[in-house]
Design brief:
The complex is a heterodimer of chains A (about 280) and B (about 210). In chain A, about 70% of the residues lie in helices and about 0% in strands. Chain A contains 13 helices and no strands. Classes of the chains: A mainly alpha (about 280), B alpha/beta (about 210). Chains A and B meet through helix 1 and helix 3 of A and helix 3 and strand 7 of B.
Chain lengths: ~280, ~210
């Protein structure tokens, strides 16, 4: 395959018949400029006894190759998602901080100055009236760009998280799913965490304060952003967080170990939360 | 127009629909071993349903580009000969693997259809290329993969206007794609796939 010339040999070249691992590796890593009548060549060179034996071997090898490739890609993909969601958070936080700076500065120059990213966007569209306005409006433009970048990253997270963790994304929403994977360091390590840990992921400070004996145990971490926690009556919030964390843990395990979508999980969670909330209303 | 051998119109609950024989894949209705082929879930199914002259007779060797989770390719493998299914996304390939495990001559390839040299050492010259890729540059993919087609082979392609450019009218997008396709293919016939698929143009072409 790597003899220096642009080789045009079949995947079976140099592969021992019966060595499925080597065959799969050749399928994954090999290449050729043009197709040839590979089945006939494989029979001619004695790699396969006849065409149907060739196809049988090819089937085994392509399935093995695709299976290994999928597993490898999915493991790598969660790391990409982690970078994307952390970048999204960084962009949002930085845009907000700089927007505050812009508002403070603009307040000294314009009587109608507003606040927040929306105001920075408005300023960004203006032409600087003089050279002293130029840096302020330049900064406002950076804020608008950063906010745009955060929105692009959010869309990216929203479109890729369901591929990587379909059940977790369905239950938690893609952004929260990505944050949980990020806090755990990967889908596999999230799948291996007990539900009680998932419940307080993102509340490490509060958890350690509690473990040192100085604070109550945190009821929830980043899952607080889920409507099923934040939208539940404070008295029942702990139960809601526990129930949600339980289902999210199961979802992460299915996503990691099997990968198929189980819509019944959504229904079970909806039902459980409805029960908890009705308890609060009595 | 005639259906390829191995594809028939069968009755499902009193409704006549296309069907092939093979192990069921996605919960489709099965009667007497015939699996219903839903044209709304398959561009090739829609082409056959609409009577587009595909020239398919059955038993062809097929290269299928954009196999996704294998819905359509499962039906193709049912009536065709050796079928090579190229898909680049990891998640749908998992489902495609299940489809391939149950079929004799369906070979899944986790490869990028834009890089044919990464699978030319596996795929033999074929009678038919079926292309259903939802990326920009659909004409380039068809031209790049022309090397796999036998001289008397055929390209069956569904062009998705929205994959090229969402802001332009589908007709304008189709014209552009057809223009560049014609540098390597002679287009035999074309047909929009409404009502089964919006803004899709199906075409049948032969290599120049």
């Amino acid at each position: 395959m790597t003899d220096g010339t642009p080789g045009n040999t079949g995947w079976f070249e140099g592969v021992e018949p019966g060595d499925v691992a080597a065959a799969a590796a050749a399928i994954r890593e090999g290449s050729a400029e043009r197709p040839r009548n590979w089945p006939a060549e494989a029979v001619e060179t004695g790699f396969a006894d006849d065409e149907s034996a060739y196809y049988e071997t090819l089937k085994e090898a392509t399935i093995e190759a695709a299976d290994a490739g999928v597993t490898e890609r999915e493991q790598a993909d969660d790391q990409q998602l982690i970078h994307a969601v952390r970048s999204m958070d960084d962009c949002e936080r930085t845009a907000n901080e700089l927007a505050e700076r812009v508002a403070e500065w603009a307040g000294t120059r314009f009587s109608e100055a507003g606040t927040g990213i929306e105001y920075a966007r408005e300023l960004a569209t203006r032409e600087p009236a003089d050279t002293t306005e130029r840096p302020l409006i330049g900064l406002a433009r950076r804020v608008a760009d950063l906010a745009d970048e955060a929105a692009v990253l959010r869309r990216h997270v929203e479109s890729t998280a369901p591929d990587i963790a379909p059940n977790l994304s369905a239950l938690a929403g893609p952004v929260l799913a990505a944050r949980l994977i990020s806090l755990a360091g990967g889908l596999e390590s999230l799948a291996k965490k007990p539900s009680g840990t998932v419940q307080v992921l993102g509340a490490e400070d509060a958890l350690f304060a509690h473990l040192q004996g100085s604070a109550p145990s945190p009821k929830h971490g980043v899952i607080y952003t889920h409507e099923y926690v934040s939208g539940t009556d404070p008295d029942e919030r702990g139960s809601a967080a526990r129930a949600l964390a339980g289902k999210l843990t199961i979802a992460a395990r299915i996503d990691h170990y099997s990968g198929d979508r189980r819509p019944e999980l959504d229904a079970e969670l909806d039902e459980r939360i409805a029960t908890i909330r009705s308890r609060g209303e009595q | 127009m005639s259906l390829p051998d191995g594809v028939q119109r069968r009755s499902f609950d009193g409704e006549v629909a296309l069907a092939t024989r093979g192990p069921p894949v996605y919960g489709e209705p099965v009667v007497d071993g015939w699996r219903r082929w839903d044209p709304e879930r398959s561009k090739l199914g829609a082409m056959l349903e609409k009577g587009v002259e595909t020239g398919l007779t059955g038993d062809e060797t097929v290269l299928y580009l954009g196999a996704a989770s294998g819905t359509t390719v499962s039906h193709v493998a049912d009536f065709a000969g050796p079928t090579y299914a190229v898909e680049f996304a990891a998640r749908p390939t998992r489902d495609l693997l299940d489809v391939a495990r149950e079929r004799e001559r369906l070979f899944p390839l986790l490869k990028d259809a834009r890089a044919p040299e990464t699978y030319a050492h596996v795929v033999e010259p074929v009678d038919v290329i079926v292309q259903d890729v939802a990326t920009r540059g659909q004409a380039a993919v068809a031209l790049d993969n022309r090397r796999f087609l036998n001289d008397d082979g055929r390209l069956l392609m569904a062009i998705k206007a929205r994959s090229e450019d969402v802001t332009r009218s589908p007709e304008a997008v189709f014209d552009d794609v057809l223009d560049s396709l014609e540098t390597g293919y002679e287009i035999r016939n074309r047909e929009r796939l409404e009502p089964y698929h919006d803004d899709h143009l199906a075409l049948c072409a032969e290599p120049r």
